[in-house]
Inverse folding.
């Protein structure tokens, strides 16, 4: 285990030194390229701010309007019959929208039910099994100017659904229910 700790500690500095050394050997102006990359990074960060603000406002409206609770009431009976705890529903709904909100929900579920509970394990696996589809579409597609994202949205949400199903199956298979 000490070897992995040592590797993880030195990996990034060694990688940076390797890149700089390789660039110098290839006669690339590494500092100038670094500065150009920094300028591009700042420009991209500024260009995605409106998309981030729009997404954050949408999430706030979704939660404050009661739409999340409404969806929970709709899906609760079916999922509980299948042995899936209703407490996971908000996490499954929010995860494709916001990683930060989902992480907060996961932390709350673990704090309430414990990390070794069925809900805690399911929340943890679910957190790592799906992506923030709406964030990716909003920020990355918006940054490069892609307007038609309907097919990407469908595929992303289908992948999220598959991730949720896989998380449930894996947790039940490995740990059992409750």
């Amino acid at each position: 285990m000490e070897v992995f700790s040592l590797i993880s500690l030195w990996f990034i500095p060694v990688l940076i030194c390797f890149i700089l050394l390789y660039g110098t050997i290839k006669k690339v102006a590494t500092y100038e390229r670094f500065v150009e990359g920094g300028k591009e990074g700042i420009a991209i960060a500024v260009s995605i701010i409106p998309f981030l603000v729009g997404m954050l406002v949408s999430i706030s409206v979704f939660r404050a309007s009661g739409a999340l609770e409404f969806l929970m009431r709709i899906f609760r009976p079916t999922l509980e019959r299948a042995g899936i705890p209703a407490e996971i529903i908000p996490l499954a709904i929010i995860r494709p929208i916001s990683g930060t909100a989902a992480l907060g929900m996961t932390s709350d579920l673990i704090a309430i039910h414990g990390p070794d509970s069925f809900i805690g394990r399911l929340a943890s696996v679910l957190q790592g099994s799906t992506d923030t589809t709406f964030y990716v579409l909003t920020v990355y597609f918006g940054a490069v100017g892609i307007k038609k994202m309907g097919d990407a949205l469908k595929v992303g949400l289908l992948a999220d659904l598959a991730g949720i199903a896989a998380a449930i199956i894996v947790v039940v298979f490995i740990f059992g229910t409750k």
